[in-house]
Design brief:
Glucose Oxidase, domain 1, about 750 residues, binds phosphoenolpyruvate, Beta-Lactamase, single chain, 23 strands, alpha/beta, binds magnesium ion, TIM Barrel
Length: about 750
Amino acid sequence: MDHLNLLLNIGQLDWVFKGSSSIENLLGKLVVMVAKHMQADVCSIYISDDAKGKLVLRANTGFKPQLIGKIRLKPGEGIAGTVFEKNEPVCIADGFTHPNFRYCKGTGEERYKSFLSVPIVSGAAPLGVIMLQRQENNRFKNSDIKALQVVASQLAVVLENVKIILSLQGATPRANARGKKEQHHSVFLKGKAASRGYAYAKAALAIGTERFHEIAARTFGKKYGLADLQKALTKTEKELETLQKLVEDKLSDAASMIFTSHLLILKDKSFLAAMTTPVQKGRNAPDAVIATGQKYITLFAASPVPYMQEKVHDIEDLVTRLIRNLAGKEAKLPPVRHRIVIATDLYPSDLLKLSSEKVKGIVLLSGGVTSHVSILARSLQIPMVIVNDPVANTISDGDHILIDAEIGNVYINPDKDIVQEFKDRIDEQATVKAPPVMMPFSETKDGVRIKLMANVNLLKDLELLSQLSCDGIGLYRSEFPFIIRKNFPTEEEQYFIYRKLVLGAPSKDVTFRTLDIGGDKVPAYWESSNTGNSFLGLRSIRFSLAHQDIFTQQIRAILRAGADCHLKIMFPMIFSLEEFIQAKGIVMNCIDELKKSGEAFNDQPKIGMMVEVPAVIEIIEEFARIVDFFSIGTNDLVQYMLAVDRTNEEVSEYYIPHHPAVLRAIKRVAVAAVACGKEVSVCGDMANNAKYLQFIIGCGIRTLSMNPIYLAENQKIIGGIDVAKAETLTQRLLATGNIDTIRKELFLS
Ligand code: PEP
Ligand code: MG
């Protein structure tokens, strides 16, 4: 081997240790030695600083020494960042032509165009990167790559220790995870991005149970009398009325009555008397309020009816609000307004409340990114990160939190430089931006027309859609008004919501997905016998067929609202031909009934189904003959095919949309649909993700329905896709049964 001497020297690192006065000195010697042996002009070692999510230049020969510690790259940024993120070497004759190249000012590196960089990996975890640079006419050879890889592997053990020591020097102590609140100093948590955006604000600890228990355990030193209580009651009532008005104006479809139960309880005579009577007799008002809250909670919690049990939540919220207005300072209860909320669990209705309180962001300690709370947070445009790290439990009220929900990072009490780094992005997010420029329709590079449709969860989504361009609504998740409200909306209420949707739709194509409750979308007022795994229970179309009165009302409302649009109706979670035929039969009966009524309605809707249950794939050819269209719901298809709960962050590493079985299933649906001349679309989160677009188009699918925030950027990506190339990629992906090979093709190339 060309570099035997170097490898021997590296293998005996003790000489480096012996003569080194400090870690910096040790690293300095290492880079000089490697550069000399490899005849490189520059040698750099970057080590990752996990707390800050950056690769930091820790040693260098060839640049000015002042740059050490100053050059900081994000994973994926620059050649070093790319090598680190992809965990693969880069050897390139002219680094300036690399797509991720980043010129670092003051390095003088314009002279050194030839790059060789390899990752330094310990176990499976990347630690950093070693990088060599030479003058442009002196490119590295294959033997150089192999040698540097061996060097990197030998260095890994040393650098692992260096990294630990540097992190201690860098004062990034991890909080202990005993659940005890501590003063955090700059802690970094890696989570999953559930709803995009950035936010920086003080933390407000969970709404609901935890907070109530905390208040209940307090003793109030100051004396509060009847007048204080009356004042607090009036203030609370006003607050709730304002909030209710606010949500109704902005979220009319889902928000009806959302704060109303709080208001009703507040006006309830016995509830009021339970608080005021003891205060008149001399009891301190906060104690009386808490005791009343506890009494009602015990009552509601004991009820066998889920609807009543949900009231516990309302009482906890209400009492917390009351105490804040009564003894705010002493109770140290900051409002959640403009804060980042840390919560262990959230109902969809909580999200609406938080949205009306203008929270800046959410750190959620449970759930998955395809869960419906995440989907709703995206519609409400609240940045949200899901974190499965016990350290998150130790966040205190008032800790400063920065969330980067573009990539899923959470910083607790971040250092000034991190805050500064995000300032521009946060400011930019707050400015009212001109809508992205979009072409009126989408096509691939070689002119193949792709229908881009939007997923709509709340009517609020239409605001954004009105500024974009797309071919209609490909998925309206009709259940959100059902699960957020306090009762099933009537046919008329549904008609009004659906009519607004149709009138606000960006084109005539409107696809209604019929009620998909169950799973993680259970209305609290619904007395369900579902126990155990509700994703496998009376969910979706099963629920609708078991409650045909509710289903019929919904279908009638849809047919009436869609009188003058290109109406499409699809059933979720279909598992058999018989089930589809039965559901379609109900639609036909509704059409017959409406004909008799003389009302305006749509008598020729297209009737299709979602492909979400794996069993359907084996009989997809038969389905293709009887449906008008398919829409592939990859969120559920992945969950059911891979037996992995989409809402459970603990198993999220198993939630792999690019699993070969999933890819082959998608292809099979596409082939069956195309053979019968039926439309097929993808409407699950895979359609949001730019990385899957080539594969989906390569399968022959020409319709995609996605969250509106992805429309503009995905239209651009589609404009760069060549269908013949996409088909070749798809063939390659379908030919392998290996998850990792597919991952590399899709994400690392
Ligand atoms: C899906 O399952 O992919 C889908 C689009 O439906 P939902 O996410 O509402 O279950
Ligand atoms: Mg689904």
